[in-house]
Amino acid sequence: MIARKKIFWVSIFVVFYLVLADLIAPFDPIMSLDRENLSSLPPLTRVYEINLKDGGKVIAFDYVKQGEFVYYTQKFSRGRVKLEDLKNVRSLLFVFGTDNLGRDVLSRTIYGGKISLLVGIIASFIALFVGLIVGVFAGYFGGIIDKVLMRITDVFLAFPKLFLVLVVVSLSSGQTIFSLILILGLLSWMGIARFTRAEFLKLKNMEFVLALEAIGFPDLKIALRHILPNAILPSLVNMPLLIGDLILTESILSFIGFGVQPPTPTWGSMISEAEKSLLSTWWLPIPPGILISATVLIMNWASEIEE
Questions:
Q1: Confidence (pTM)
Q2: 102 in helix, strand or coil?
Q3: What's the CA angle centered on 198, arms 193 and 203, to 5 degrees?
Q4: Is 32 in contact with 47 (CB distance < 8 Å)?
Q5: Which of 79, 221, 263, 268: CA 20 to 30 A from 107?
């Protein structure tokens, strides 16, 4: 399967996931139904939600109807309600268990994946936009413009990206998910700029470009309308690689507390929260950890060009 087909099918899956993530999450990923009774439940735990006619609800691990009452058992107590006050009983299954605050891990994993993917995708398009601008001007106009832009690119490449991101994030005030996306995008354009520049250097001396220049087409029009559509393909094929790299970077930032801030879940922040009580709640980091690795591997596979 060629890279373009793989990218197409991965894109379709990602779009469906982003659209349906809120719908397929079984519980609220941010708020717990009952923090006291649902905290730190292991995977495949079943509980019961006893709904009353007055709108109240009770979370119980077991219940039994006897006479005029419904007796229930909670994590730290027991109780009863009148049978005449009972509206219905709903069974709840926590497939991946719950965290220390009683929130469903499956719902947080699904919703956190949506946030992580959005960060990676939007930041990669910002990087694509900046990288194309730098690559177009450097590759087509050459000379001093090329030298200045490439030296700026080299300066950005001289420092580890994670180090640069940490410095910028720590200096920015009022950290939000949008500022994080902008920072990641503006610090990830260098590879795209080099790809685009290399393609422009190859294409600008071809006959169709020389013909356009000979009949007086404006330089910018030639670069954007005639060369760029032919030069952009390598950058687009490498977009999944960049998205995977940005998802991994965001996960690292969230793990150390510089990424998306609580209570909004991301895969990295979920692992960070799980690390605080790893021995007692060993199941918490497994779903987000597996999905981070799987997503990066799938993105790398999508960008792989087969002979």
A1: 0.87
A2: coil
A3: 125
A4: no
A5: 79
